[in-house]
Amino acid sequence: MKTKKSGPIARFGARYGAVVKEKVRAVEIKQRQKQKCPFCKKLSTKRLAKGLWLCRACKKKFASHSYYI
Ligand SMILES: [Zn+2]
After folding, report:
1. How far is the CA of 68 from the centre of ligand 1 (A)?
2. What is the per-residue pLDDT across 5-35, written as a single tens digit (0 to 9) for each?
3. How close is the Cα of 62 to the center of ligand 1, in Å?
4. Residue 33 near residue 17, CB atoms below 8 Å
């Protein structure tokens, strides 16, 4: 089943309110983006799981915040 809304918050439908969804959307977009590695300072770090990050440039896997570094 497809919904007409798109993006990471579409799964919430009409529930939970617009303000809450806007906050969730901002966090989710941020967590999907590649982030700066604290070791080599390159934008090549991806989130593997909650709080687990992997840098492709220096091959380091490390724990950090759940949704961002
Ligand atoms: Zn790195």
Report:
1. 15
2. 666 677 777 777 888 888 888 888 877 777 8
3. 10
4. no
